[in-house]
Amino acid sequence: MKNNARKIKLSFNSPIVLGFTLLCFAALALNWVTKGWANRTFFSVYHSSLLSPFTYIRMLGHVLGHANWSHFIGNIMLILVVGPLLEEKYGSSNILFVILTTALVTGIVNYVFFPHVQLLGASGVVFAFILLSPFTGLKEGTIPVTLLLVGIIYIGGQIYEGLFVYNNVANLTHILGGLVGGGLGYVMHKNKMNRY
Length: 196
What we know:
The chain has helices at 15-33, 37-41, 53-61, 69-90, 92-113, 123-132, 145-164, 171-189. It is globular and about 55 Å long. With 196 residues, the chain is mainly α.
């Protein structure tokens, strides 16, 4: 008698999002083992000498670093929920471009305008993904209500918190990440970026 049971295999459906998650986890573990040295050296951006090669590594590496387990979980859960859908829609290379652009923009802005603030974490990427997601269903000549609501709720909330709440959250990073995601979502929707 034949066994008609189907074998279930794991599907690595989103290589960039899964890879990014693993790198963030590795950075968190390395920082724990080194008692904070790894975050200071590789995974946070702050004003440091432009002659140091680590300054340039940190411009991108800061999105991999997290202060603790709850900081990591808060960012990665949203990335794991939204990221695979975006990677399927826009392609792995475009999602990698969104992550790298968000890291670079937020890193440079923090370095230039907030020299005494140490920035780390993937929250800028989270906001880029959140503002990118409404573009997946965009039709020519329309503006989705979801895009407007996401923009008002997320960006408006960050502006409010930045002005009136002191909570040690990098609100400008969230806003910049959202602007990068929204801007690149518009460009990708117009088919001005190749999908690979």
